[in-house]
Specification:
HAD_sf; single chain; 2 domains; HAD-IA family hydrolase; elongated; Rossmann fold; hydrolase activity; hydrolase
Amino acid sequence: MNASIRAVTLDLDDTLWPFAPIGARIERVLDAWMREHSPATAEMFPVEAMRALRERVWRENPHLAHDMGALRRMTLERALRESGGNPALVDAAYEAFYAERNRVEFYPDALDALARIAARVPVVALSNGNADLVRCGIHQHFAFQVHAHEHGAGKPEASFFLAACERLRCAPHEVLHVGDHVDADVRGAALAGLRSCWINRVQARWPHEDVIPDLHFDSLAGLADWFERVAEPA
């Protein structure tokens, strides 16, 4: 791949930080919040039951797969209603969730690498999740963020990638999408016409034959090093 990359679109969860620890903390924080503010809900929906309810709401509403916030609110509202709690507590419960969701612990290489990449090309956040760049403390490194819930679809839909390209005023082949997920990130971007970079921190094997990533690193630092070696500033 040559160095004619004018911009980067970047996945967030499991690319800049691991999501599993965040998910576990969210469950504990919500459980504690319910025990304080709606004990009947906490009694009826302890951690495992709340998780099962969330998964059920996800399955019942596939049309909202691109809107994690809406699905989370639906889960909280249903838990409150079914337990005889006060549905008016949804906003406060959601805020407890959202504050914890944005308390991220970056991979050791991620912040420095992000700053190095952003110094060379515009970087756009392109994530199916609902992380808030300001709350995460990294908004200064991004030109903007494309939200799946606002666009109406998320990765791997081609329109999601192309919306970012259009806003960047770049042709798809001038944009490099960077992420950890084989299908949502790398294959999805490639099929949409973007260049692709797989951040493979777990040393997995590439499973597809029809599409391969243009770049492949075991950390975001590897991509930052690549830009500093061969890429020209935008």
